[in-house]
Amino acid sequence: FDEVVGHLAELASKARLGDGFQKGVQYGPINNKMQFERIKELVEDAKKSGAKVVAGGAPLEGSGYFYPPTILTNVAEGTRIVDEEQFGPVLPVMPYANVAEAVQRANATRFGLGASVWGTDVARATEVAGMVEAGTVWVNKHGDLSPDIPFGGSKESGIGRQMGDYTLESHTESKVIRIAKPK
């Protein structure tokens, strides 16, 4: 657990924030003030509930809605950062005793937009991914989207699918013209 947290903290600390159109920038600003304030509120709530900030944890000074990648540990079950969809660069890292417990906890939410499973045994990680209740589950990566692959949530996350054939179908209106055969 500590080794994983250390690697995540290192990645978070090295992340480049800035104009998303600039080469080398990994994270642009949060898309609006309301979402920016929500992320700040969720992190503060987690800290008040005993979470430890390992990386990030506070917005950047200056203009723009920049919030650095944040790694939290010692996060309690039932904390808002765990139970709610945050749509921000905050990762609560929580230990588990076994795979069954990890899957049960991952599925205990009413949301299911996306999840990721990480491991050195890709076949086992893929098997575990099949147990996680989410619209998209990545193995050994996260958030990799492609226009030819459908994306959308399950449970209370999202309303259908985007991308792939779903996008074409959602933007297509079928029309039938029937012509009588001449007699």
TrEMBL record:
<dbReference type="GO" id="GO:0016620">
    <property type="term" value="F:oxidoreductase activity, acting on the aldehyde or oxo group of donors, NAD or NADP as acceptor"/>
</dbReference>
<dbReference type="InterPro" id="IPR015590">
    <property type="entry name" value="Aldehyde_DH_dom"/>
</dbReference>
<feature type="domain" description="Aldehyde dehydrogenase">
    <location>
        <begin position="2"/>
        <end position="177"/>
    </location>
</feature>
<dbReference type="InterPro" id="IPR016162">
    <property type="entry name" value="Ald_DH_N"/>
</dbReference>
<protein>
    <recommendedName>
        <fullName>Aldehyde dehydrogenase domain-containing protein</fullName>
    </recommendedName>
</protein>
<dbReference type="InterPro" id="IPR016161">
    <property type="entry name" value="Ald_DH/histidinol_DH"/>
</dbReference>
<dbReference type="InterPro" id="IPR016163">
    <property type="entry name" value="Ald_DH_C"/>
</dbReference>
<dbReference type="Pfam" id="PF00171">
    <property type="entry name" value="Aldedh"/>
</dbReference>
